[in-house]
Amino acid sequence: MTQAELRLCSLLLRENFGEIVEKVGNSLLRTGPRPLRLLVGDTGLLPDQVKKALCVLIQHGLARYAPQPRGPVEYEARRERVLRILRYPRYIYTAKTLYGDPGELLVEELLLHGHLPMSAALARVAERLTETMEDGKSMDHSEVSATFVRLADTHFIQRCPVPPEVPPDAKVPPAPALAIDDKDRFIVPRLSLIGKGKRRHSCDEEEEAEHKAKRQKQEGGSSEPPPDDGIYWQVNLERFHQHFRDQALVSAVASRMDQTSSEVVRTMLRMSEVTTASGASHTQPLSSNEIFRSLPAGYNISKAVLDQYLALLADDPLEFVGKAGDSGGGTYTVSIFWGILGGFGVFWADFGIFGLILEGFFC
């Protein structure tokens, strides 16, 4: 890790989380994986301060932990995740472009808190949207929920991994291994959403509400847990990078050929956006008939014209589109990797340039 990267990571941690988190994160970035005891000695902080800082880093995905076979749990900073804080405004703007104000605020809240239950995220966003509305109007939770479901369906947000269930008589591990099945990552829980966003109270009313909540907690009284208690959601950064990559590819096709060709490629990418892995070199094969049915409603081209465009794209030396078979009027894939490199005119064997391109589009 270069000194410039280390300095940038330190500044990002300090600006977003404060000096204590910066000290702990900086120590991990400089020295690599370390146990809690060495972190306390290196930073000069109190053990409780280091523990809280580690909780913040882990909650935001900026650090991870791993139990050792013969030794304490070790913590490790994730340099690439810290640097991606710089892209947070772009993630938020993209969500606004695709899903409007509710999408923007949902992604912003998840990035701000690291992860949140669906019910908490909906309540926060409904409240913020209500603040921007005229007096007497408020945002219904169900309206925000519809956008939340769309974000999950298109994989821009995902469930957080959870610790496995431990039988009562089993030995509790020092650090649980978090995991989640791929089939469960984007399943939205069914919630009966009844409520609307509330406007913020004055400072005095807020302080009184906080004191009341503290008194209830001290007296042992507590409200019922939300129906999605224990199910947390986070932003799927890789999905946003996949979207940026697709946008770059569509722009390259438009520059190389014309707008209609780019719209065909855009349609193919949209059809396979949730079925193609972020690091795949090709999209899933799509038939000409499927592509024709999925073209935008106002795009008036015939099936014969579409087949001509697909043939031109497949015959182009830059290989934006490849033909995979003849069934269904012909099946085609978008060549993501070589399409991007060809679209930007990158034919050098210089690994420095090659690595820079990969960092920009696939990291």
Automatic annotation (TrEMBL):
<dbReference type="GO" id="GO:0005666">
    <property type="term" value="C:RNA polymerase III complex"/>
</dbReference>
<dbReference type="Pfam" id="PF05645">
    <property type="entry name" value="RNA_pol_Rpc82"/>
</dbReference>
<keyword id="KW-1133">Transmembrane helix</keyword>
<feature type="domain" description="RNA polymerase III Rpc82 C -terminal">
    <location>
        <begin position="201"/>
        <end position="334"/>
    </location>
</feature>
<keyword id="KW-0240">DNA-directed RNA polymerase</keyword>
<keyword id="KW-0539">Nucleus</keyword>
<dbReference type="InterPro" id="IPR013197">
    <property type="entry name" value="RNA_pol_III_RPC82-rel_HTH"/>
</dbReference>
<feature type="transmembrane region" description="Helical">
    <location>
        <begin position="336"/>
        <end position="358"/>
    </location>
</feature>
<comment type="similarity">
    <text>Belongs to the eukaryotic RPC3/POLR3C RNA polymerase subunit family.</text>
</comment>
<comment type="subunit">
    <text>Component of the RNA polymerase III (Pol III) complex consisting of 17 subunits.</text>
</comment>
<dbReference type="InterPro" id="IPR036388">
    <property type="entry name" value="WH-like_DNA-bd_sf"/>
</dbReference>
<keyword id="KW-0804">Transcription</keyword>
<dbReference type="GO" id="GO:0006351">
    <property type="term" value="P:DNA-templated transcription"/>
</dbReference>
<dbReference type="Pfam" id="PF08221">
    <property type="entry name" value="HTH_9"/>
</dbReference>
<feature type="region of interest" description="Disordered">
    <location>
        <begin position="197"/>
        <end position="231"/>
    </location>
</feature>
<feature type="domain" description="RNA polymerase III subunit RPC82-related helix-turn-helix">
    <location>
        <begin position="8"/>
        <end position="66"/>
    </location>
</feature>
<dbReference type="InterPro" id="IPR008806">
    <property type="entry name" value="RNA_pol_III_Rpc82_C"/>
</dbReference>
<protein>
    <recommendedName>
        <fullName>DNA-directed RNA polymerase III subunit RPC3</fullName>
    </recommendedName>
</protein>
<dbReference type="GO" id="GO:0003697">
    <property type="term" value="F:single-stranded DNA binding"/>
</dbReference>
<comment type="function">
    <text>DNA-dependent RNA polymerase catalyzes the transcription of DNA into RNA using the four ribonucleoside triphosphates as substrates. Specific core component of RNA polymerase III which synthesizes small RNAs, such as 5S rRNA and tRNAs.</text>
</comment>
<keyword id="KW-0472">Membrane</keyword>
<dbReference type="InterPro" id="IPR039748">
    <property type="entry name" value="RPC3"/>
</dbReference>
<keyword id="KW-0812">Transmembrane</keyword>
